[in-house]
Known about the structure:
By secondary structure, this protein is α/β, with parallel strands linked by helices. The protein has seven helices and ten strands. The strands form two sheets. It has a six-stranded mixed sheet, sandwiched between helices. Strands 2-1-4-5 form a four-stranded antiparallel sheet, covered by helices on one side. α3 (about 115-125) crosses α4 (about 135-140), α3 packs parallel to α5 (about 160-170) and α5 runs parallel beside α6. The longest helix has 15 residues, at about 190-200. It is globular, with a radius of gyration of 17 Å. The relative contact order is 0.21. The chain binds adenosine-5'-diphosphate (ADP). The site of adenosine-5'-diphosphate has 12 residues, from β2 and α1. Adenosine-5'-diphosphate binds next to β2 and α1.
Amino acid sequence: MTSSGVPASSVDGAAAECSRVVKTYRTATESVTALDGVDLAIPRARLTVVVGPSGAGKSSLLRLLACLDRPDSGSVHVGGLRVDGLRARGRRRLRRRHVSYLFQRPGENLLPYLGAAEQVRLAASMRGAEVDDDAISALLSRLGLGARVSHRPGELSGGEQQRLAVACSVIGSPTLVVADEPTAELDSAAADRVLGAMGELAATGVAFVVSSHDPRVMAVADGVVRLDHGRVQQ
Ligand code: ADP
């Protein structure tokens, strides 16, 4: 382990790994290097938090780990598979099986017209997983949503919506759950419950990687990656 608390080099069975990753955005007038030679490994069954000032490259890193984007150079592995060279279709297929992505705004993670249990059932079927109703009820109860199984997102608080999104993200046992500032829109009590749920579910085997400015996230994290100017700080 490094001082960041996360193994920095290739680790057998890591959920995801980056090696010498560079990501540059080019516009008509400028070129910005968002990630400048990033090496890291995201361990399985852990909650890893990525912290750093605005512009440090957190979202860019998370988008690569979630297979939503490709680096300019370097390699990215998810679940042992090399993903940096995949085209859009291959990345879509890989995401369906291996990766969940949580947006900051709870409502963006959910469909407005489905009840809570139906949302989880749909997420499972999109992942190609067979999950019975008892397993869905047990997961919702575990996340404190046992009395909300038929509620639609509009009938849930922001924190409940985000916990439901967490339920959808872990159903079918993906390799990695990527969450970009998932508590930014929540009050502190709701944020604590969402983070507690993530920590608890990580312990069951899913790797969570979460970006945040929120010091409470660091308190529950198993490991911290510090980014600054597109580099991992040791
Ligand atoms: P963070 O999430 O830590 O705020 P980002 O990964 O969003 O950092 O951004 C890192 C750098 O890359 C910033 O300078 C940002 O302005 C730039 N950047 C991010 N996305 C784009 C884009 N699509 N086009 C141009 N520049 C971008």
